[in-house]
Amino acid sequence: MGSTQTSPKTSSKTSLSAALRRALHRLRSFFRKEPLDRELNDEMASHIELAMEEYMHKGMPEEEARRQAMVRFGGVQQAREQHRETRGLPWMDVLMQDLRFTFRTLAKDRAFTIIAILILGLGIGANVAVFSVVNTILLRPLPFHDPERLVRIVERDAGTNESGRTYTADATEDFQHQNHSFESVSGYFAFTGPDNYKLVGNAQPLPVTGILVAENFFQTLGVEPSVGRLFRHEEFVQHAQPVALLSYPFWKRQFGGDRSIVGKTVNLSNTSVTVIGVLPDTFDFGSVFSPGSKVDLFTPYIMDDFRNDGNDLALVGRLKPGVTLGLAQSEADQLFPQLYFTHTHPEYGKGYTGQVTGLKEYVSGKLRRSLIVLWCAVGLILLIVCVNLSNLLLARSAARSKEFAMRSALGAGRGRLVRQLLTESLVLSGAGALLGLGLAYAVTAWLAHQGSLALPLLSSMHVDGRALVWTLLVSIFAGLLFGLAPGLRMSVGNLQEVLKDSGHGTSDGKKHDRMRSVLVITEVALACVLLVGAGLLLRSFLRVLDVDLGFEPSRAAAISVDYDDGGSAAKQAAIWQDVVNRALTIPGVEAAGISDNLPMSRNRGWTIAAKGEEQRPNTPGVGVFVYIVSPGYLKAMGMRLLRGHDITWEDLVNNENVVVLNETVARQLWPGQDPIGRIASTGGTDVRVIGVIADVRESSAENEAGAQMFLPATKRFGPEGANLVVRSKLPPAALATSVMHKLREMNPGQPATEFKPIQALVDHATSPRRFFVVLVSIFAGLGLFLASLGIYGVISYSVTQQTQEIGIRMALGATRARVQGAVIWKTMRLALIGILLGGAASFALARGIASLLYGTAPTDPATFAGMVVLLGVVALLAGYLPARRASRIDPMIALRTN
Amino acid sequence: MGESKLDLLQGTLDLMVLQTLAAMGSLHGYGIARRIEQISGDEVLLNQGTIYASLVRLQQRGWIDAAWGTSENNRKAKFYSITDAGRKQLAQDAAYWERLTGVMGRVLAMQNEGGDR
Question: Which helix (H) or strand (E) holds A787?
Fold first, then answer.
């Protein structure tokens, strides 16, 4: 025969399809076991008959013929097994066997199974939930088109003052025209307070939040409207027909998702505005640019309306394809210093800086470290869970050692037994993963609706495909990890010995005991690390809450007031005075005042300089937060006047140019001198200093107080809106209706704005820290609980094992106290070693979270001591219960039962 | 042990079955086993039962077909026949086998050729 060599290419192709066909056959055979077995039986029966026929034909008697036929055939069972193995999936058969056996054993040991699955569910659930948070905030790209090309442009070293991070209309336009790195640059008005518009309809006016966006804002982000269209160029010129885009949730809530709203006009703060479109559900302005706030609609930022204002545009840009951040940055470094603040007043000067940061980095970069710490904490929890389960499984496998020895004696290979054990642990972790997924779904759904939490992108959080993959990985890892110890023990143990060792009087091997002790020590050490970390973060959080804010948020509340002064400062002063006076008549109200701005919410900054100094070079003035206020505001907020006096109504009525400064400004302008009566210059006007207040933390509790000034609402310093702040003896909620009633008395058009406790503003600012502290503390608590469970398990088990020994000792005269003491000493020895190791590890690791701490050293002795004591006490308790049981052992019974 | 029967090398049974079916046409399992025994002059150690694993393997590879039928004595039996793919495979395997046995024969026939010092 000639050799028919096929080319390697076709042969590999055919062999691939052949392999596939074989795999399909095997799979089909696996599921058609019974009919195939029956067919084989028939076939073998006919084989024997055919053979017998032949032998009988040769003259053999029937019995002899059958015997011969059977001999020639060989082992029927072997042939059957061989057939099955060849046609089907033998490893699947073994797996099914293992699974069946696993379910049977787990069902028998129900208490163990439930505890194991619960613990695993908690551990895996926590991991998946935290992964989802990390995934949402850190890993997943922003929900925009080509998000990696989006950047934020802010002033370098701008501090917390938002005005220092923004640009004027003129500077923005100049940069838009001059740059070559960006496909487009746009921005939004950065100083919008909540509820800045009212939607007037048939019913009560509704407060809504609208953001002014510059031309091409949505195009820059790559957001397409879900209904209607985006803004057009002609809508960004002065006196254009007012238009608005609705956010998706607002459209659903307010207009019931009615598509015909597009093209209709609505009354927005007494202006007729045409709705031109609805933004998509995926676009959540607040979650990206201003975490924790909701935005209802968008209107055009018309550059010409803002020419004479200060910095108010927050810039967003889309890089041209192929332009790197570095290139864009070096161009920005050249262009920004050359930009004028305003073209109408070139004498105001020029010179910006522009820091180009990837939008994603800008939004979530600050949270990276916190999230990684959280991730580590939850990873520690998983480790503790695994160690705990390892321990439980070890105890179980000790109890089952006879069973395994028996199976081994019956011919099960060691590998087969280890495989059985691993199957069990994987089944457990699989069940735990299902429970954990349920938990994670619940937690993420809950978190996604925590609108008040100032974390970016939270509203888009859910358990996605990536989280599912993570779940799978985590559960397999956990299953292998905690299945490892019993598996290892099984593979090194001497099964013969176990069989011989038939129980009476012999306690379990020392080696076995040691393994469990090591596991418990590990667990305690891990829990110690978690506890110390949580303790440090908790202490920082308490320090933050303890900070002197410079005002008293408790028992004060604010409400946005609507009024129409027709543009007259005199009328406005009269209205403000009326509002404050009426508020003061409400029973329980101690102080009331109005400001157009509240601490820790919107911020806005001007510069101030001492009179006569402002023109000198190198004294650029101080950037200050500005509050346009009425008399009584300082008192209502609980701010402390250190010198001088508050603004008076006369100041408002007479348009007096006076100012109240905080200590920081006073010190910077007139170091070591009395500022009262001095003249300062701000916004092109000279103002007389009449008072100085203690510093107020205006942007967050954690940042040092900046500079602030309080100006009376006069013709010169017009307010942007008004917030009535009321301080009372009663809780704010109790006042809400009476305050609203008073406001409606004056102005029936007062929208139903929220009466917001000032404490809520502070809480909102501290909410990210609170979020992390609460989570890490929960994990630490869980770790502590699991560690105590582990200690209890091991000690309790050893007491049970030593019942007889203890009985003998007591019979020989050992006192109860002595027996109890011995058990407790054993517990404490384990705990102490764990605490020592864990303490040392914490000491080394705490440096890693130093940047997350506030007013707390990473080696804070109080925290370390506290956590060590806590862990010690819990360990003592966990050991005390079995110790008490040990001391109650009746020697007579203990000896008799064996 | 003296005259022991030949142990079948891995894979050789498959080849024997293919060749038998190619030569004899459609045949049932017992027939194939008997035929191989006869041809080998009863020199092969063959548990007839092992032929069924070989048959199912060849069937899964698509080299043989199977169908239930009746024997000449009117007994129900499963009959196997070789497919086109099976014939191709047989040609390849047979060629390979011949080359191998040729080489083995030459190697084993090697005599002392002056390498003896």
Answer: helix A758-801
Question: Under 8 Å CB-to-CB from A202, ≥6 apart: which residues?
Answer: none
Over residues A269-306, the pLDDT tens digits come to 888 999 999 999 888 888 888 776 788 999 999 988 88
Q: Which residue among A46, A53, A87 sits closest to B60, beta carbon to beta carbon? A: A87
**Model ipTM value:** 0.84
Beta strands (DSSP E) in A733-841 are: 756-757
Contact B52 A83 (CB under 8 A): yes
**Rounded to whole angstroms, how far apart are CA atoms B49 and B29?**
9
Tell me the shortest Cα–Cα distance from B76 to chain A, in angstroms. Answer: 7
Terminal CA-to-CA distance of chain B, rounded, Å?
A: 35
pLDDT value, residue A271 = 87
Q: Which fold has domain B12-108?
A: Arc Repressor Mutant, subunit A (1.10.10)
CA distance B78 to B69: 6
Among B10, B14, B30, B84, the strongest candidate for a mutation testing the A interface, having the largest count of A CBs within 10 A, is B30
- What does the alpha-carbon distance between residue A452 and residue A858 come to, in Å, rounded to a whole number? 30
pLDDT tens digits along A615-648: 444 344 567 788 889 999 999 988 988 888 898 8
Taking the C-alpha atoms of residue A31 and residue A792, their distance in angstroms, rounded to an integer, is 47
Kindly give, in sequence order, each residue whose CB lies less than 8 Å from that of residue A325, ignoring residues fewer than 6 positions away: A151, A319, A356, A357, A358
Which pair of structure tokens corresponds to residue A148?
């990696």
Comparing alpha-carbon positions, the chain B residue that sits nearest to A36 is B56
Tell me if B47 and A87 make a contact (CB, 8 A cut-off). no
Tell me the sheet residues that pair with B76: B70
Q: What residue type is A618 in one-letter code?
A: N
pTM, whole model, 2 decimals?
0.75
Same domain, A243 and A189: yes
Unique residue bearing structure tokens 């307070």:
A193
Structural domain ending residue among the three candidates A324, A353, A382: A353
Q: Any bridge partners for residue A680, and if so which?
A: A610, A687
- Tell me if residue A609 falls in helix, strand or coil: strand
Q: Which of B47, B56, B71 sits opposite A50 (nearest CB)?
A: B71
Running DSSP on this structure, what letter comes out for residue A136? Answer: I
Alpha-carbon radius of gyration of chain B: 18
- In terms of Cβ atoms closer than 10 Å to its own Cβ (0-12, 13-18, 19+), residue A119 is buried
The whole domain housing A373 covers: 369-545+764-897
Who among B48, B53, B54 is closest to A47 (CB)?
Answer: B48
Q: In what order do the strands lie in the sheet with B64-70?
A: B27-28, B76-82, B64-70
Mean predicted confidence (pLDDT) in A694-706: 73
In chain A, the N- to C-terminal Cα span, in Å, equals: 80
Closest chain B CA to residue A19: B61
Residues sharing a CB contact under 8 Å with residue A124, sequence separation 6 or more, in sequence order: A382, A385, A429, A432, A433, A435, A436, A437, A471, A474, A475, A478
Whether residue A133 is contained in a domain is answered as: no
Decide if A819 is inside a domain.
yes
